């Protein structure tokens, strides 16, 4: 390959593009370790391209990965993130919804959907997603979900819901500094 001046990574990418157009899954000829290595390489490439301000090229890497493997949480998360950065909120919501359906016990896509719906100004839908995420969470993730609920409630202008979520958060972690500070600020503002 070097004698001909070929870039092996580009040759491999072209091969995968052509393979995925006619086949599903990874080429078996590449060996049993190849799918995991290739998935990581394509995800890293997408993140690098996105960081370099090349969202179209990043999406192409993720789209290739999506054609090679069935949808998984990392792929759907990355695709949703790319859609969000392109301001394609409907696509981001669709991908997060697909992730939530594929992995119903994982609270992460529901937390992301809560934030997305709050950004759309759909507070009730955001609250529904957050409650589901909270119920599916355990340990520190449950505390984090409660704190996120407080932040989203405040953003929606609902200080009582924010206080309720902060109390839930503080029940789980009485020393949660950010929750204590937010609660103090809400109470101070209510007294003004």
Please tell me about this protein's structure.
With 192 residues, this protein is mainly α. Helices cover 76% and strands 0% of the residues. The protein is built from ten helices and no strands. The chain has helices at 8-22, 34-51, 55-68, 73-85, 89-102, 108-119, 123-136, 139-155, 159-172, 177-191. The radius of gyration is 21 Å and the shape is elongated. The model has no long low-confidence stretch (mean pLDDT 90).
Rg over C-alpha atoms, rounded to the nearest angstrom:
21 Å
Secondary-structure-based class equals mainly alpha
Which regions are unreliable across 5 or more consecutive residues at pLDDT < 50? none
Q: What separation lies between the terminal Cα atoms?
A: 73 Å
Strand residue content: under 5%
Name the helix and strand elements from N-terminus to C-terminus, one letter apiece: HHHHHHHHHH
For the biggest sheet, the summary is:
none
List keywords for this structure.
10 helices; 0% strand; mainly alpha; 192 residues
């Amino acid at each position: 390959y070097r004698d001909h001046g070929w870039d092996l990574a580009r040759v491999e990418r072209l091969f995968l593009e052509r393979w995925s157009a006619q086949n599903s899954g990874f080429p078996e000829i590449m060996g049993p370790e190849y799918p995991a290595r290739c998935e990581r390489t394509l995800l890293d490439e997408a993140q690098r391209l996105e960081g370099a301000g090349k969202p179209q090229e990043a999406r192409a890497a993720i789209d290739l990965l999506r054609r090679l493997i069935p949808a998984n949480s990392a792929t759907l998360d990355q695709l949703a993130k790319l859609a969000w950065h392109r301001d394609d909120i409907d696509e981001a919501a669709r991908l997060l919804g697909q992730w939530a359906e594929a992995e119903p016990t994982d609270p992460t896509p529901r937390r992301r959907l809560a934030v997305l719906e709050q950004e759309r100004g759909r507070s009730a839908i955001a609250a529904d997603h957050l409650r589901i995420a909270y119920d599916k969470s355990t340990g520190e993730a449950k505390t984090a979900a409660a704190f996120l609920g407080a932040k989203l409630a405040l953003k929606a202008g609902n200080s009582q819901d924010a206080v309720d979520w902060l109390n839930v958060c503080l029940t789980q972690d009485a020393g949660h500094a950010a929750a204590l500070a937010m609660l103090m600020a809400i109470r101070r503002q209510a007294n003004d």
